Amino acid sequence: MKLISCEGVTIGYDGQEAVTKVSFDLEQGDYLCIVGENGSGKSTLVKGLLGLIKPQAGSISFNGIRQNEIGYLPQQTMIQRDFPASVTEVVISGCLNRRGLLPFYSRAEKNRAAEKIKQLSITDIKKKSYQDLSGGQQQRVLLARALCATEKLLLMDEPVSGLDPLMTADLYQLVAKLNQTQGMTVLMVSHDLESAIKYSNKILHLKTETSFFGSTADYLKTEMCRRMMGELSDD
Ligand code: ADP
Ligand code: MG
Fold first, then answer.
1. Is residue 207 very low, low, confident or very high in pLDDT (cuts 50, 70, 90)?
2. pLDDT for res 100
3. Measured by CB atoms within 10 angstroms of the end CB, which terminus of the chain is less buried, N or C?
4. Chain centre distance of CA 150
5. Residue whose CA is at the smallest distance from ligand 1 atom 26
6. Contact 65, 26 (CB under 8 A)
7. pTM of whole model > 0.85?
8. Given the CA of residue 38, which atom of ligand 1 is nearest to it?
9. pLDDT computed for residue 232 by the predictor
């Protein structure tokens, strides 16, 4: 089943197109990676999928999932790293997307947050302040938050940037497990091409326009992929 279909999506800022005529499908169970250089429109497309920016042209349709049922892990900024709230508060705030703003959390929402905290093994730090955690711990907390928001689709924008190799491997393992054992559909923006190839079944390569969309196996055969891998092994 196609959860999301994007057809000819164009998104711009002040008349400048950041994403031009991009088309792709996301099927249930996919692990789709969006790759491409800085400024190629990856985050803009993500914001379009979330409904945070309106496309100027084209269509984004949802099937079997609503736009507010996406678990989103945003690209981190320094301001977010200093967010003054406890781990539990950050995790449970993931429930807010699924309903209107109410002044308190329900028992069910509290249980849900506790379950995700346990699942991601962050119980021992749940009372700590988010800003006092390491980068890897913060990403685990944000992943738990995203899981509060969704049963079906995790959307992550550069989730391993700023993490050391050990924490990076840890995050990839967690996401792979969710995809393989819980059938969680994964859409990940990444500039870690090697890992994107290792874990994904589909690749969308953006360069404002779609440079490639298809299976990871087919992507490996392209000149563009070889060139990017070549650049990686040169340094
Ligand atoms: P990526 O995530 O691939 O690095 P972005 O989607 O962030 O790329 O940016 C794509 C293009 O859109 C860039 O040229 C960037 O400068 C521009 N852009 C991104 N966000 C904004 C914004 N809020 N206002 C104006 N231009 C923006
Ligand atoms: Mg980006």
1. very high
2. 67
3. C
4. 12
5. 13
6. no
7. yes
8. 4
9. 65
Ligand nearest to the CA of 75: 2
pLDDT tens string 57-71: 999 999 999 999 999
Q: Which domains does the chain have, with CATH numbers?
A: 1-65+153-214 (3.40.50.300), 78-151 (no CATH)
Tell the residue nearest (CA) to atom 24 of ligand 1.
Answer: 13
DSSP string computed for 168-215: HHHHHHHHHHHHHHH--EEEEE-S-HHHHHHH-SEEEEEESEEEEEEE
Residues with CB under 6 A from ligand 1: 13, 18, 36, 38-44
| Average of per-residue pLDDT across 17-35 | 97
Ligand nearest to the CA of 208: 1
Report how far ligand 1's centroid is from the alpha carbon of 97 (Å): 24
The closest residue, in CA terms, to atom 13 on ligand 1 is 39
Q: Which ligand is nearest to the CA of 159?
A: 2
User: Quick one: tokens of 11?
Assistant: 């998104």
Best CA proximity match to 189, nearest among 21, 34, 29: 34
Closest CA to 185 of 27, 7, 6: 27
**Tokens matching residue 98:** 């699924």
Nearest CA to ligand 1 atom 15: 39
Beta bridge partner(s), residue 46: none
How many Å apart are CA 105 and CA 110, to the nearest integer? Answer: 7
